[in-house]
Amino acid sequence: MEEKKYQVFVSSTYEDLFHARKKIIETVLSLYHFPVGMEMFSADDSEQWEIIKETIEGSDYYVIIIGQKYGSIAASGLSYTEMEYDYAKSLGIPVLAFIRNREVDTKPHERERDVNKIELLELFIEKAKANKMCDFWDSMDDLATKVAIALPKIMRRTPRIGWVRGDQATSKEISNELAELSTENRLLREKVRAYESRLHTDAPILNLSMIDDDLELTIARDVTVQPYMDLLAMDDIPNSYRGDVSEEKLRKYNEAIPTKEKVDLYNKKLFLHLCYQEHSVTFNPVLENIGKKLATDIYIHIELPSFLVALSDDNKKFFTELPVINIPETPMAEIDRLNAARNSLDSFRQRLILGKFGGAENDFVLSGHRASNILDSSVMDYVNKIRPINATDWVDYDKGRIVLRAKKLIQSLSVEFDSVTLVPIAEGQGTINFKVVCEELKEPIIFSRNVIVS
What we know:
Helix content: 40-55%
Strand content: 15-25%
CATH class of the largest domain: Mainly Beta
Structural class: alpha/beta
CATH architecture of the largest domain: Sandwich
Strand order of the largest sheet: 7-17-16-10-13-12
Shape: elongated
CATH topology of the largest domain: Immunoglobulin-like
Distance between the termini: 63 Å
């Protein structure tokens, strides 16, 4: 049995991994070391996070178990489990991450149901995967075995301060020697940090400019929907029109009435068109390399919540084109129109005969005709000015995800991608998640923006 004992902080979400935590704590005890974790903290302790930080600071190693729940979210927007992980990493404490395989069957209380938490969990898992000491587990016995193997290995490779018995305390001479060694070690560490800093500045530093702040969008509200149309029977025809409305005219009218399915589709397209025309936002993504090294094989993954749609070649006609539905003229309206036309023609002839034909009526007809053309032209000009995503080698769109790609980006230069148009289609609250990776980066750049559609 080794004389030095280590304190091991065990972290995880609580309810879903309660038995797994218990198993790991037993494993650490069987290795003759000291496990600590959330069990020692009171749930109603107002200074709980400060105590957790102090305990992590006093620990030699950090073990995190990740299942399929993200856990309680703090005011920072992250779960306490992820905050513990980040804090241990910031202190330079060796971290062992054990992620539960996604294919393993789980019980309902062991799975996350909140969509926002599921997205945060996936980002957290990606972060943990980037850790050098990361493994996957299926069962609790499998987890315990892997922890029992991994802990002694890291303790041999990366020995820490640990704890010893009081009767094994060092003499004054040894203490002085240790103080000298500690000073020498500190100076060497400072040199190492300086070299690491120099290496870091030589790496590419990528900065994506696209959605720089949280988004607040709205959807179309004042939409005049097309109601369903009822079939007409001869009994529905007023007596004053019956002499002019035949059964044949009535049949043709009823056949021309659009079905409920066509009306529903028209109303849906009209709503989405208005959401696009009046409420969409367009961004021009620009990626800069402000570092001192070339970046190659760059991928930018953008994940959208379900209530946002990115315009693409596959769906842009559905949003940009004003929908049309053919509403037939009723037999009564047709009769009124024909009678009005006859009266207008008779009046025109009468005025011509009497020499009273003036320019005002002519101007009225022409101006009305021009107004119609101008309206159509302005709508078409607006649609033609919209610049949706082009499906080039640089931009891909698929089921709520946009991927921007660049083969290389020289230092101190930037690349501008095709514009990205986002259309809100429903109320919701969530996040747009970004992940930037390239060949030269050891860990992906991950960030998110909140978005609210009301």
